């Protein structure tokens, strides 16, 4: 299953955030959004709890990241 994590960056920090997100082995795809302060990270995992505790919380600890959220399935 693939989870989409919306990452909100501080002004001017998107490129740094992308560089840091590439360090995560669980993130399979990183997309820039129209909003210059947003990045969409696709995480492949069968366990939502793993995504929430190990991926989302680690992303939030990155300097320059102002927020993260797992997008709901449509």
Descriptive overview:
- This protein has 74 residues and is an alpha+beta fold.
- The protein has helices at 14-21, 48-60; strands at 2-9, 27-32, 38-44, 65-70.
- The longest helix has 13 residues, at 48-60.
Shape: globular
Structural class: alpha+beta
Annotation, overall tally of beta strands? 4
Strand content: 35-45%
Helix content percent band: 25-40%
Distance between the termini: 14 Å
Radius of gyration: 11 Å
Task: Let me know the largest β-sheet.
Answer: 4 strands, antiparallel
Number of helices: 2
Low-confidence stretches: none
Along the chain, the helix and strand elements come as EHEEHE
Strand order of the largest sheet: 2-3-1-4
Q: What is the arithmetic mean of pLDDT?
A: 92
SSE arrangement:
Layout: E1 2-9, H1 14-21, E2 27-32, E3 38-44, H2 48-60, E4 65-70
What brief labels describe this structure?
4-stranded antiparallel beta sheet; alpha+beta
Summarize the structure.
The protein is of the alpha+beta class and 74 residues long. It is 28% helix and 36% strand.
């Amino acid at each position: 299953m693939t989870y989409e994590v919306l990452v909100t960056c501080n002004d001017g920090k998107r490129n740094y955030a992308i560089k840091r997100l590439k360090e995560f082995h669980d993130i399979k795809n990183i997309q820039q959004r129209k909003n210059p302060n947003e990045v969409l990270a696709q995480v492949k995992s069968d366990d939502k709890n793993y995504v929430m505790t190990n991926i989302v919380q680690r992303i939030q600890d990155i300097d320059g990241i102002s927020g993260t959220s797992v997008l709901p399935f449509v």
